[in-house]
């Protein structure tokens, strides 16, 4: 086995292709972005091409995997909100024949411990359990705003909350990221493929003004 330099062209190309295939294969979570190449070994094949054994340090982005976006096009999260991890991958690459085959991979991810977040930024919101009722309610309120204001032909429903946090501003503020799914409710009752989407929303309740402020932004993806 050869030991190419981790900052060499061959290692970087192998890592980029491996991460592309890993993200394409995953069905849950967020697109992973390359943080650094931890180690790389290369096994040249007898005829042509090489098998690369990679250990990659990765960090999640703001793009959900359903977006199918390239990891290079996805914005990184703020350091205190990111999920870090490591992926081990084996990939065969034959540049002459334009072949890249990911044989196997395994990724282990974990968020930044809350105590580190509070130490660096005491007032920053910390990721919480997304299945708690208060976050499901915030997602429903955010989506209601989207359904009312969007020009989509069909209404959408909350599929599941993927990320949630809370912060005290002028009152409790709930921040949610959630998947949505197209329903059968439309103006014209026709058969169509079901689309999915990804939303970011917030519900801020003001104790001073006795009001609540709802924001939402969604991306709709073509049927998978």
UniProtKB/TrEMBL annotation:
GO terms for molecular function: cysteine-type endopeptidase inhibitor activity; metalloendopeptidase inhibitor activity. Residues 1-108, 119-219 form the Cystatin fetuin-B-type domain. One of its GO terms (biological process) is regulation of macromolecule metabolic process. SUPFAM superfamilies: Cystatin/monellin. The keyword Secreted applies. SMART domains: CY. One of its GO terms (cellular component) is extracellular region. This is FETUB protein. The gene is Fetub.
């Amino acid at each position: 086995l050869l030991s190419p330099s981790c900052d060499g062209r061959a290692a970087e190309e192998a890592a980029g292709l491996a991460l592309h295939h890993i993200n394409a294969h995953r069905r849950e979570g967020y697109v992973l972005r390359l943080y650094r190449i931890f180690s790389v070994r290369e096994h040249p094949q007898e005829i042509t091409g090489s098998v690369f054994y990679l250990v990659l340090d990765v960090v999640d982005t703001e793009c959900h995997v359903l977006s199918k976006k390239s990891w290079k096009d996805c914005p990184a999260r703020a350091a205190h909100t990111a999920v870090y991890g490591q992926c081990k991958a084996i990939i065969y690459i034959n540049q002459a024949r334009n072949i890249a085959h990911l044989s196997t991979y395994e990724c282990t991810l974990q968020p930044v411990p809350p105590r580190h977040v509070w130490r660096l930024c005491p007032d920053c919101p910390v990721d919480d359990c997304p299945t708690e009722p208060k976050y499901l309610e915030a997602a429903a309120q955010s989506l209601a705003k989207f359904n009312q204001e969007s020009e989509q032909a069909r209404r959408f429903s909350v599929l599941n909350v993927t990320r949630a946090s809370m912060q005290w501003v002028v009152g409790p503020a709930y921040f949610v990221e959630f998947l949505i799914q197209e329903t059968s409710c439309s103006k014209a009752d026709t058969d169509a493929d079901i689309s999915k989407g990804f939303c970011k929303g917030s519900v801020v309740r003001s104790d001073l003004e006795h009001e609540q402020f709802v924001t939402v932004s969604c991306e709709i993806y073509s049927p998978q």
